Amino acid sequence: MNKPKVAVIGTGGTIASIGKTPLDILDYGANKTMIEVDEIIAMFPIVHEVAEVVPVPYRAIPSPSVGFAEWRDLVLKSDELAQDPDLDGIVVTHGTASLEETAYALHLTVKADIPVVVVGSVCVWRDKILLCRRAIDPRRGNKEIAQCGKGHV
Q1: What is the pLDDT of residue 150?
Q2: Closest CA to 138 of 122, 117, 153
Q3: pTM of the complete model
Q4: What distance in Å separates the CA atoms of residue 97 and residue 100, rounded to the nearest whole number?
Q5: Are strands 52-56 and 89-94 parallel, antiparallel or unpaired?
Q6: How far is 144 from 142, CA to CA, in rounded Å?
Q7: DSSP letter, residue 142
Q8: What pLDDT digit, counting tens, does each position of 110-142 carry?
Q9: Which one is predicted more confidently, 102 or 1?
Q10: Active-site residue (options: 14, 93, 96, 109)
Q11: What residues form DSSP beta bridges with 55?
Q12: Pseudo-torsion of CA 10, 64, 141, 73, nearest 10°?
């Protein structure tokens, strides 16, 4: 069976944050270190068991910094990626402070006819593993993850 091809766009937020240690679950922001999406994916090679994952670098910024300019760029990037007929879906990693707003903006404006899943993390290490796996493999998805496109959020 062929694995689905999924593009993962990284925007930053807690899911991209690195604490001083793997047990740093409270003051990880004090480290002021965020990693790019390819580094997140490299941390969890298990995702390659369920999909062909294509990391799409974007920005690694705190989610309160995400606004109209970033939404426009994400819409354009999503629509551009969706032109690939082999692409089965798009995952946008995102901080939780403005995740709903981004999901709604994408829902209203993305023209792509493939699922666009916006996923965030509230716990630096544990959530990275679980949410990346669930977002990339829709068969194991979580109904609480915002999905944009195909007529629903």
Answers
A1: 36
A2: 117
A3: 0.78
A4: 8
A5: unpaired
A6: 5
A7: -
A8: 998 898 999 887 655 555 555 555 566 655 544
A9: 102
A10: 14
A11: 8
A12: -50
